[in-house]
Amino acid sequence: MSTSTLAAPTVTEQRRARRSPGGGPTLGRPGFAWALPATLFFGLFALAPLVLVVVLSFTSWAGLGSPEFVGLDNWQRLARDPVMINSLWLSVLLTALGVLVQTPLSLLIGVWAAGTQRNRAVLSAIFFLPLLLSATAVSVLWRALLDPNFGVPGQAPWLFGDGNLFGSRTGAIAVLVFVGSWQFIPFHALIYQGAARAVPAVLYQAAEVDGAGRWGQFRHVTLPQLRNAMITSVVLMVVGGLTTFDTVLILTQGGPGTDTTITAYYMYEQAFRSFDFGAGAAIALLLVVVATVISLIVVRVSGYDRMRSTMEGL
Amino acid sequence: MTVRTRLARVVALGAALALALPLTACGDGDPAAGQDEIHILVYGDATNKVEKQLVDTFNKTSKVKAVLDTIPGADYQTKLQTIINTRQAPDVFFNWGGGSITPFVKADLLLPLDDMIAKDPGLKENFLPSVFNTAMVDGKAYGVPMRGTQPVLLFHNKKVLADAGITAPKTWDDLLAAVKTLKGRGITPIALGGGDQWPTQMWYQYLYDRVAGPELFAKALGGDKSAWESPESRRALELLRQLTDAGAFGTNFDSVKFTDGGSPTLLSSGKAGFELMGSWNYSTHHDANPSFAADGLGWSAFPSVPGGKGDPRNVVGNTNNFYSVLKKTRHPEAVAEFLKLQYSDEFVQAQLSIGNLPTTTNTEKFLDGATNPDYLKYQFTLVKEAPSFQLSWDQAYPPAATTTIHQAVQQYCNGRLDAAGFIKAMQSLQAG
């Protein structure tokens, strides 16, 4: 049964492709049946919960008994909640800092790793190690390494002062940006490495003939060729940054005080620490809206939606 | 059931799942299957050994069989909250008394134990009263102590104190003097795991109790928010400020944690002189550094404060853990029999053998046979003679209040909040 439905579009597709008049075969689009499993999955695990979260955000529920409908109560409370408003700014701040720190570093590492230097493979393998570790393990590790008395700060007071990294707002934010970067730069470097490998060698040969040095080649050939990779990487960073959760949970628990309570963590805190699922759902929804708006802006500004090929004229 | 409430439940459950899915991957079987079973749900940790043993003892004689279910540590309260009103709910469950069960009592889910106690007065009389009272809500008993007590003590490093020529402080002025001396010697006077927040809270609990007695907090917990702005409350905050201003905790205490071994190592390595901590601190040191636990670790009661109304014999901490019973259990008689085991000699000996200090009246006669009798006897006498045993604030209030309390105690201690800010934060709490 399933085989026949799955096989059907292929046949049609081939026929259509063969029958297409003129030039080469036009690309046939697969039928809806192909998208069915993914659509079902998406509907069940993404859309349905989203709808339920919308409903829940208008109720008061502590996990006991039935949720009580309270209208706009949760929303009004959140609008007046200084922690909520601050958490949105913090999420944006952490995301922006993440993009600013990670992009240049992963770009350089990625381009370097795409080359053919000696020891490149060995060093790359070491660079990519953090990628293999879970965010939880990474956070636990850095929490221990940054202990003010027995970790790195205790050994380097000239750099860290009294080592109160987790006790001050600036320190805690810096730690989160640093650990996030340490963990995710390898991933983005991998994207850049792949893209840099795909740059046709003829472009460099042409640049060399035109008298471009190493910097000139990087500036005028590599960078423009990596445009699409960069957009991909930044969109991933933005979405990942806005939904960061595990590093905050383990490294700072939103502290000191509420100084690193970003929106995703605040949602968890309201729902699963304070058992206020209504407020938690409202925050979750707000996060969805904010992340969607920001992603749309990035897509618009970067021209991702009409992404042009970097291979024109080759 | 009307269609509307059913719909509401389905929606709620679905949403809870949606929220919970990425966070917890919990998969238990269906414990509600057997007719002649009672399910005992406990916090999963090393003490489960004892609980297992008691369940086995119970099953030898009982027709209704007990089944022990465990939920690993950190997820316990969350998981309990999500199943307690469903068919997966246990018959008997572990809790911390106080605020951890108040929401369930208010939702009419728990069985008052007064009838069981009327049939077997031993279910109340065989426990130390200051402990048993923690699981009373609105004058009714809802829990029976089932593990060990964990009072908070002022621990010290014997060698550090001896080298500095000081003794364990009896009064607040002694403590301030000790802080000054230790600071002068380049040692952090008091180790504080501020990153965990609850160790900071211990200082407030003791100071409020010593300054005002247990009544102030009881009043606040009962909903009288003026308690927080009373002169006693301000006085307690002032004393704490004296301590932080004297540099008692150093400057980086908010980056230090107890849970990752940070503050205990400060104490055991001699980089700090004191640490205010729960009685589990002994086993923490015993695991990490047995010779320090045996010879280097000293302890004393929290000092008295000048002009304080609170009895200096009062203690604060985790009184004990409790077994509470769900109203809808099918076998209340079997449950009552099971609860009786919690004051048996077998229970006491099994708890002592793994280092817990039970709070039954028959505990005392077994203390000599324990591995560290001095430490256990000191604690037992302390708890037995305490006119009041204040349950930790974050457990006295319902779980919803924990985050607010923790943030407020941290922010006043590190100077981000002033007294007025702290008072305002505590007044925002919903009554327990």
Short overview:
With 314 residues, chain A is mainly alpha-helical. Chain A contains 16 helices and 2 strands. The radius of gyration of chain A is 25 Å and the shape is globular.
N-end to C-end Cα span of chain A: 46 Å
Count of beta strands of chain B = 13
Structural class of chain A: mainly alpha
> How many domains make up the coordinates of chain B?
2
Overall geometric form of chain A: globular
Average pLDDT of chain A works out at: 85
How many DSSP helices of chain A?
16
Order of helices and strands of chain A: HHEEHHHHHHHHHHHHHH
The 3D shape of chain B can be described as: globular
In CATH terms, the superfamily of chain A is: MetI-like
Task: Set down the secondary structure blueprint.
The complex is a heterodimer of chains A (314) and B (432).
Chain A: H1 2-19, H2 32-56, E1 59-60, E2 68-69, H3 73-80, H4 82-113, H5 120-127, H6 129-132, H7 135-145, H8 152-155, H9 157-160, H10 169-197, H11 201-209, H12 214-225, H13 227-242, H14 246-251, H15 263-273, H16 277-302
Antiparallel strand pairs in A: 1-2
Chain B: H1 3-20, E1 37-44, H2 48-61, E2 65-72, H3 76-83, E3 92-95, H4 102-106, H5 114-119, H6 122-125, H7 129-132, E4 136-137, E5 140-141, E6 144-145, E7 150-157, H8 158-163, H9 172-184, E8 188-191, H10 198-212, H11 214-221, H12 231-245, H13 262-268, E9 272-278, H14 281-288, H15 290-296, E10 297-300, E11 315-318, E12 322-325, H16 332-340, H17 345-353, H18 373-385, E13 389-391, H19 393-396, H20 402-413, H21 419-427
Helix pairs in contact in B: 10-11, 10-12, 10-20, 14-15, 20-21
